[in-house]
Amino acid sequence: MPIEKFPNTEQYQECHTYQDENNFDWKIARVQNGFFVAYFGDSYFKDKYFDLEVNGKSKLLLNSGCFFIQDTDFDTFYEFRTILKEGWTDDIWESIGEFLSERLANDDGLMECEIVKN
Fold first, then answer.
1. Which of 16-25, 53-62, 73-82, 104-113 has the lowest mean pLDDT?
2. Beta strands per DSSP E along 1-118
3. Virtual CA dihedral for 83, 68, 77, 57, nearest 10 degrees?
4. Is the dihedral of CA 10, 15, 17, 21 positive or negative?
């Protein structure tokens, strides 16, 4: 989803900005039915796609640098905050990819990401 879709102050319950170990900004905002994550760093460190293995099949997800994960609890939001606060840029992207793979394996309707290839 385009980064312009990241919620504004009237739309979120809480929002945090963190700098990763490479000093790039990330934002995470909790809304009523999930949370948004957005990357505001150098595009060199952001792959165009997430190439994921899900239930033995390859899936490509467009990586716009901003995505929404719905129907999550506070623990999942907190876990994501911790990843953003403590990681290097590449490690954060890897952790996000692993999380997305797990979510897609359980229910591909729980994310608003663009699946490019099944």
1. 104-113
2. 14-19, 25-31, 34-39, 49-54, 57-62, 66-70, 111-112, 115-117
3. -70
4. negative
Residues 6+ apart with CB under 8 A from 61: 49, 50, 52, 100, 113, 114, 115, 116
Q: Is the confidence at residue 114, as pLDDT, over 60?
A: no
Q: What is the pLDDT of residues 27-73, one digit of tens each?
A: 999 998 889 999 999 888 899 988 988 888 888 888 889 888 887 88
Element (DSSP H or E) covering residue 94: helix 89-106
Q: Is the pLDDT of residue 17 over 90?
A: yes
Say whether 105 sits in a helix, a strand or coil: helix
> 45-51: long-range contacts (C-beta < 8 A, 24 or more apart)?
45/89, 45/90, 45/93, 46/93, 47/93, 49/116, 50/96, 50/97, 50/100, 50/113, 51/97
Instruction: Say which residue, 110 or 100, is predicted with more confidence.
Output: 100
